[in-house]
Amino acid sequence: MLPDPLPPLDAVTLTTEQRLLPVQAVADEAVGDPRDPDDRAQRLDEGWGDEAPGPGEPVLDVSMVGDPPQPGPGTKRLARFVHLPDTQLADDESPTRAALVDNFQISGGFRPQEAYMCHVLNAAVRTMNALHAADPLDFVILGGDNIDSAQTNEALWFLDIVDGAPSVECDSGEDDDLVPGPANDPKDPFAPVGLDVPLYWVNGNHDVLVQGNFPIENKRAEAVGSVASGGTRDYRMPGGPVVTGEVIPDDRRALLDRTELLSLVRSLGDGHGISMDTEAYGKAFYSFDVGDALRFIVLDTAAETGAAEGVLHMEDIDLFVRPELDKAAADGRYVVLASHHAATNLSDGGGFGGTVQPDAITQTEFEAMLGEYDNVVLHLVGHNHVHRVRWVAPTGGNPYWEVMTSALADWPHQVRVVEIEDLDNGFLAITGVAVDFAVDGDLLAGEARPFGVLDMTTRWQAPGDGMLEDRNVRLFWPKP
Ligand SMILES: [Ca+2]
Ligand SMILES: [Ca+2]
Ligand SMILES: [Ca+2]
Fewer CB within 10 A of the terminal residue: the chain, N end or C end? Predict the structure, then answer.
């Protein structure tokens, strides 16, 4: 018998009121190894996973062009939405996992909290619904790396959770029941709450590549096979230790190429922004309007040719990006761009696991292109698992803000609620506030948090909270 979805939250505590902070300072050197279940349990006992409420952080006003005058009488909100990057929803029992490769620098191969990410996502959905109930959200936009390794089951879990399917069971291979009985462990089926607002899909490297680095064509057989070489979790043993060798195969792990992924995303719920035209194009390049002043343009910077860093092909610039920017300018709309990779993470595609792409554009070329348009306000990005705010002022061009939100997968496990206003004083204001997912009455999301804290405090994952000026901010942008 499946329990009911969690009830709505009464309210959300924003980080302007209170931040959840680790009790332990981050260690100077790696402590123990969280991949070892006994070590992990010991570190939890020692308090490495403990968090305590800390003081809130007020919204910091930031202007790079002098203080704006007082807002005018015609101040108007143009959009209110949530930015949600890097959930990295993983089938942590997959034979293609690389849990043996995990350290402070390369920290995504193993997460102590990885089995719980379906519940963390569900808790984030519940939190976003409460934000919407308090003050309506227009939508939620993803930041890419929604799933971890381009697998069918991972994509279905993610979409079923945000769409509120009757039941989701984030389990593969052996049907595990880690704690006997229903609804008491992360491998049990549960009923997700479902998001009350539209959700827009953005592709990251982990959505289209195995482990975010490797082209799927070479890995299709391995993903549905029975041999794990890089280390995966075996939950038939206490604590789910990392093992290599034989695993129980599961066809639901079949890899999706980018077109297959877009087809799946489009086929469920309201399509999550992906139209038949987008699917036919083969990459997640699309746009949508909000109200009468804003146009969002989504860029697909994931490279199916491999490597974690972003690639933007000149072909896609010519076929999609330039025409969209020109059209938005002609239509008199302000532009918000969204992609997984920041301009600083654009590459030629030749990083680890990849192949050099001759027509890839550089950071400088990308920023200079956006600088040609005086209506580009904001670029939303993820990928680096840290909060970061950057004023981009291309030489001789028009400036805009780039806002990176940290990963839901890693501490501080936050999303960012964003409001864009026209202040009727010659400026737009972009207000971004970090939000912790709520765990009220949510046993399994509550169990996840200490693992994420432990991963960071024991120095197996870099802290993702950035600096004060990267978190709760009101960014002023001068209108042309
Ligand atoms: Ca299993
Ligand atoms: Ca199960
Ligand atoms: Ca159970």
Answer: N
Summarised one tens digit per residue, pLDDT across range 191-208 is 999 999 999 999 999 999
Tokens 């066809």 correspond to what residue? 251
Confidence of residue 107 (pLDDT cuts 50, 70, 90): confident
Percent of the chain beyond pLDDT 90? 98
Alpha-carbon torsion, ordered 272, 148, 35, 404, to 10 deg: -70
- Tell me the domain boundaries of the chain: 60-90+121-221+251-441+472-478
Ligand 1: centre distance to CA 352 (Å): 30
128: how many CB neighbours lie within 10 A of its CB? 26
Collapse the DSSP code of 410 into the 3-class scheme (helix H, G, I; strand E, B; otherwise coil) and give the result.
coil
At how many degrees (to 10) do helices 363-371 and 322-330 cross? 20
* Predicted TM-score (pTM) of this structure: 0.98
As to burial, measured by CB atoms within 10 angstroms (0-12 exposed, 13-18 middle, 19+ buried), residue 453 is buried
Q: Ion ligand 3 — residues with CB under 5 Å?
A: 177, 179, 184-185, 188
Has domain 60-90+121-221+251-441+472-478 been given CATH number 3.60.21.10? yes
